[in-house]
């Protein structure tokens, strides 16, 4: 099981001062939530952790090794990314889409075998989209596509999950189901980090939080130490009311 | 999996062989498939050669076979190059000619013709022009760091328009007696294609080289970020595709002049029929593109025989309505 470590990491958000250097360790079994308003750099951070964006300074260690010394293939065998935006240039079916999660493990001449298909189909089943397996992805609803994207990464079976708003477009039941899947992955030894807009999902499912401010400032720690109403109000520039439901705090924006 | 690849490719191979037999048999003197078979056997030394077969032998081996094989190679090269460009630009409507390649090649060829050079010099000059245009477009689109498909496409379209103006200028300034040859070259002409083996070998080598890259291309078709996250070294792969596609187009243009629509229509039709697995689409493009051009060239030389039509006219006349129909139906 590999961990993800940032050393004095400053992400490269254009025209922004450096702000707080990030020194974070995401251990196997942990579920991290990244919170922040629009444009705070949540997606940029996730892409930097995945090695898709170069950092302004500092570095990311994956399994103890600097990310830039690893090949993309080695990275992909350890780390999976759920993107917020997906483009489909060419039509592809749901099963084909999930199956590309096996790409990092297959040699160039190798065809996908029965085991690969079984893994992809199990992932589709887990995300509740198995009945769509032969449909073209372009014909699906936003929420179904989101779940297919999750199924692709589940097929990839990484030990580190980086998910950019995995609950986007999902109805309430599937939001819970996806968060439960993330928690289950962590319980099985994966490390999970996801960007979330929904404070309450974060409060409920994450054990660590990272707050990103638009000016580049950041703070991080365990959930309970981070869920301070005054800090969250400063983060979102929004007054909040707090109530407790099932032992977890629920934040509601106050009408001005 | 193998059956899924094997069946369509087998059918296409059969179609390719049939098209070659038709191309060898049809013309000013018709030959039956049996006669062609005899020539083939005779040439391989399995049966003796008699006087009656000598004419057929010359016609098949020295006139029709090189031309048909050249047509096959050029069609295959253009279709594979088109399929690659479409993956690179993530746009199913991309075409090798869209990036100004054929324009550059045409300028090279026309300049050689204007200078009164022949044969090999025209081919070499066209090849140089195609590669020059490739690097011009890529260099300009690359410019300040990153290139996006839309930027590459726009640069290519603008450069192609520029080449078009220069071509018109050259035609306007050239002496009348050179015009027919130049126009034929611009519309694609296989009647001078006598050396089918270099483009054929290039086509075969490309298919062998691309097969192991097929799955990476499938992933790349889903966007560079998704591909990188799934373990594809995106930048080297994109350069590789671009250079290979440019080489293939340059080789095709050099052999037969500029022939449009094969690179656009063939991959598009195959994608509609066979899906988007590049491991299947690329070899299928080689076979189907070759078959299409062999048939188009056979039409070009027989329709108003003894006069010949430029094969580019035939592919455009077949390609434009087919493409418009597919586009209309896909909405």
Automatic annotation (TrEMBL), chain A:
<keyword id="KW-1278">Translocase</keyword>
<dbReference type="GO" id="GO:0005524">
    <property type="term" value="F:ATP binding"/>
</dbReference>
<keyword id="KW-0547">Nucleotide-binding</keyword>
<keyword id="KW-0067">ATP-binding</keyword>
<keyword id="KW-0813">Transport</keyword>
<feature type="domain" description="ABC transporter">
    <location>
        <begin position="4"/>
        <end position="239"/>
    </location>
</feature>
<protein>
    <submittedName>
        <fullName>ABC transporter ATP-binding protein</fullName>
    </submittedName>
</protein>
<dbReference type="InterPro" id="IPR027417">
    <property type="entry name" value="P-loop_NTPase"/>
</dbReference>
<dbReference type="InterPro" id="IPR003439">
    <property type="entry name" value="ABC_transporter-like_ATP-bd"/>
</dbReference>
<comment type="function">
    <text>Part of the ABC transporter complex HmuTUV involved in hemin import. Responsible for energy coupling to the transport system.</text>
</comment>
<dbReference type="InterPro" id="IPR003593">
    <property type="entry name" value="AAA+_ATPase"/>
</dbReference>
<dbReference type="GO" id="GO:0016887">
    <property type="term" value="F:ATP hydrolysis activity"/>
</dbReference>
<dbReference type="Pfam" id="PF00005">
    <property type="entry name" value="ABC_tran"/>
</dbReference>
<dbReference type="InterPro" id="IPR017871">
    <property type="entry name" value="ABC_transporter-like_CS"/>
</dbReference>
TrEMBL record, chain B:
<comment type="similarity">
    <text>Belongs to the binding-protein-dependent transport system permease family. FecCD subfamily.</text>
</comment>
<feature type="transmembrane region" description="Helical">
    <location>
        <begin position="96"/>
        <end position="114"/>
    </location>
</feature>
<keyword id="KW-0472">Membrane</keyword>
<feature type="transmembrane region" description="Helical">
    <location>
        <begin position="196"/>
        <end position="218"/>
    </location>
</feature>
<dbReference type="GO" id="GO:0022857">
    <property type="term" value="F:transmembrane transporter activity"/>
</dbReference>
<feature type="transmembrane region" description="Helical">
    <location>
        <begin position="68"/>
        <end position="89"/>
    </location>
</feature>
<feature type="transmembrane region" description="Helical">
    <location>
        <begin position="152"/>
        <end position="176"/>
    </location>
</feature>
<keyword id="KW-0813">Transport</keyword>
<feature type="transmembrane region" description="Helical">
    <location>
        <begin position="120"/>
        <end position="140"/>
    </location>
</feature>
<keyword id="KW-0812">Transmembrane</keyword>
<feature type="transmembrane region" description="Helical">
    <location>
        <begin position="278"/>
        <end position="296"/>
    </location>
</feature>
<keyword id="KW-1133">Transmembrane helix</keyword>
<dbReference type="GO" id="GO:0005886">
    <property type="term" value="C:plasma membrane"/>
</dbReference>
<dbReference type="Pfam" id="PF01032">
    <property type="entry name" value="FecCD"/>
</dbReference>
<dbReference type="InterPro" id="IPR000522">
    <property type="entry name" value="ABC_transptr_permease_BtuC"/>
</dbReference>
<protein>
    <submittedName>
        <fullName>Iron ABC transporter permease</fullName>
    </submittedName>
</protein>
<feature type="transmembrane region" description="Helical">
    <location>
        <begin position="308"/>
        <end position="328"/>
    </location>
</feature>
<keyword id="KW-1003">Cell membrane</keyword>
<feature type="transmembrane region" description="Helical">
    <location>
        <begin position="239"/>
        <end position="266"/>
    </location>
</feature>
<dbReference type="InterPro" id="IPR037294">
    <property type="entry name" value="ABC_BtuC-like"/>
</dbReference>
<dbReference type="GO" id="GO:0033214">
    <property type="term" value="P:siderophore-iron import into cell"/>
</dbReference>
């Amino acid at each position: 099981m590999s961990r993800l470590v940032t050393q004095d990491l400053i992400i490269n958000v254009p025209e922004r001062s450096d702000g707080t250097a990030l020194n974070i360790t995401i251990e196997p079994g942990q579920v991290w939530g990244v919170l922040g308003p629009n444009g705070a750099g949540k997606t940029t951070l996730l892409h930097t952790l995945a090695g898709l964006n170069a950092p302004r300074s500092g570095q990311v260690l994956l399994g103890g090794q600097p990310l830039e010394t690893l090949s993309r293939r080695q990275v992909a065998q350890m780390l999976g990314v759920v993107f917020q935006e997906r483009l489909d240039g060419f039509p592809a079916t749901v099963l084909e889409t999930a199956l590309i999660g096996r790409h990092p493990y297959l040699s160039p001449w190798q065809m996908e075998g029965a085991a690969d298909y079984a893994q992809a189909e199990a992932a589709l089943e887990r995300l509740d989209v198995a009945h769509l397996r032969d449909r073209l992805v372009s014909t699906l609803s936003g929420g179904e596509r989101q779940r297919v994207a999750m199924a692709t990464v589940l097929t990839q079976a990484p030990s580190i999950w980086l998910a950019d708003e995995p609950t986007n477009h999902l109805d309430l039941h599937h939001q819970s189901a996806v968060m439960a899947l993330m928690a289950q992955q962590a319980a099985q030894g994966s490390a999970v980090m996801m960007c979330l807009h929904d404070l309450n999902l974060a409060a409920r499912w994450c054990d660590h939080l990272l707050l990103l401010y638009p000016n580049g400032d950041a703070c991080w720690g365990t959930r309970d130490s981070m869920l301070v109403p005054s800090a969250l109000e400063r983060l979102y520039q929004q007054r909040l009311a707090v109530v407790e439901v099932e032992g977890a705090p629920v934040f509601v924006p106050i009408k001005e | 999996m193998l059956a899924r690849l094997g069946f369509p490719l087998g059918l296409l191979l059969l179609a390719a062989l049939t098209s070659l037999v038709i191309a060898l048999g049809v013309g000013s003197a018709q030959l039956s498939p049996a006669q062609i078979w005899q020539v083939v056997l005779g040439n391989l030394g399995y049966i003796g050669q008699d006087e009656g077969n000598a004419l057929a032998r010359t016609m098949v081996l020295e006139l029709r076979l090189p031309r048909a094989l050249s047509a096959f190679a050029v069609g295959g090269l253009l279709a594979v190059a088109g399929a690659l460009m479409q993956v690179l630009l993530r746009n199913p409507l991309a075409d090798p000619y869209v990036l100004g390649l054929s324009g550059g090649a045409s300028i090279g060829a026309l300049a050689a013709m204007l200078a009164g050079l022949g044969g090999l010099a025209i081919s070499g000059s066209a090849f140089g022009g195609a590669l020059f245009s490739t690097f011009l477009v890529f260099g300009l689109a690359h410019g300040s760091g990153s290139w996006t498909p839309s930027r590459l496409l726009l640069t290519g379209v603008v450069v192609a328009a520029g080449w078009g103006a220069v071509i018109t200028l050259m035609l306007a300034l050239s002496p009348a007696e050179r015009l027919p040859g130049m126009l034929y070259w611009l519309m694609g002409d296989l009647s001078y294609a006598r050396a089918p083996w270099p483009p054929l070998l290039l086509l075969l080598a490309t298919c062998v080289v691309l097969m192991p890259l097929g799955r990476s291309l499938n992933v790349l078709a889903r966007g560079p970020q998704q591909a990188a996250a799934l373990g594809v070294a995106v930048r080297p792969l994109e350069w590789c595709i671009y250079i290979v596609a440019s080489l293939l187009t340059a080789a095709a243009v050099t052999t037969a002049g500029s022939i449009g629509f094969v690179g656009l229509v063939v991959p598009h039709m195959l994608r509609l029929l066979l899906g988007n697995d590049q491991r299947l689409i690329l070899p299928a493009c080689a076979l189907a593109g070759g078959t299409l051009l062999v048939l188009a060239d056979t039409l070009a030389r027989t329709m108003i025989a003894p006069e010949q039509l430029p094969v580019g006219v035939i592919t455009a006349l077949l390609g434009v309505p087919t493409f418009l129909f597919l586009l209309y139906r896909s909405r």
